[in-house]
């Protein structure tokens, strides 16, 4: 109710309109519907209603950042506006749901990065969407529901070992699916595929053995959102991935078996989000800079191949809002960093800079760093100078003897928008961070 009233004018009449609403005396509402939540739901714009219902599909224990949630909404066509500002518009929707107390902020994470839904609110949403969506755990009751009704959206959590998991064949009867969210193990047979899901826009799979599905992914001509998280049996994406020409989002976070991206990924000109964090991808295809539509890029490896450095491919990516660079200890000269043009990216608000502590050492920062290596990494980080629009900055395993110059000169080049500064396993002692007094600072 507080979330609803704060969106109203602060007048007696507007508040009395809520108090006297007919919904309080309605007798036709199902008993599962909370009247107060229903009032807030009815007060929302139709676009926001759809985003609210879609958020209820998120498995309770799954951690999805606001960027991933908004990317799902964009892929589903729930965000309306100019193509250049879809992420910003989606975040406004997300923040309004927080303001209305329909999404709760997880205080274990900085800012409003992670949100969850209270069980009462979630139950309400699932009742409202019951004809089109199903959220369930594996079991006979779930299998019966799937076999007896056609859904547009499914979110299923399979428990136990693969041998007693959910039967994949039951899902293939859902030919109208637009969203499929699966967590846990599913029992697959030889020949299991995605070919029957011709209308699928969103495919999210977590902690499942789904290598059998890789080749058939290219049959999903309408797919916008592909997330494979911690799927340890996957070693590659299909080489002809460019045939999914509308694909906007790819997450491979935690798929440790993946060591290489397909060369044809550079042809996905609609791609807005690529996350290869916690994979073993250490090279990227040449021509990557053609993906100028990218807004989020996580786990991008700094890789040297003769006179060519992968960081050169970042230069044309002017619309990047979130960038995570790994392996910066591999950069041999500041000229390669300069070609990344970090200091010209006016939309960049989140930047993560990660080293392997020193060449050939991917553990924690240790002693014994040579003076040459120390000076080289200092020059590399000096060249990375982002614009003052940065809001979140993480530096991990940096083995320079001092902070980057652009951090020490914050008084003359103020980072007025910086909200979170996080330094992890760094040799350089942040002796004075007083210029960042308005930020949340973590040093671990």
From TrEMBL:
Residues 189-408 form the Disease resistance R13L4/SHOC-2-like LRR domain. One of its GO terms (biological process) is defense response to other organism. Residues 59-124 form the Disease resistance protein winged helix domain. It comes from the Eukaryota. The keyword Repeat applies. Gene3D superfamilies: Ribonuclease Inhibitor, Winged helix-like DNA-binding domain superfamily/Winged helix DNA-binding domain. InterPro entries: Disease_R_plants (IPR044974), LRR_dom_sf (IPR032675), LRR_R13L4/SHOC2-like (IPR055414), WH-like_DNA-bd_sf (IPR036388), WHD_DRP (IPR058922). Keywords: Plant defense, Repeat. This is Uncharacterized protein. It comes from Triticum urartu. The lineage of its organism: Eukaryota, Viridiplantae, Streptophyta, Embryophyta, Tracheophyta.
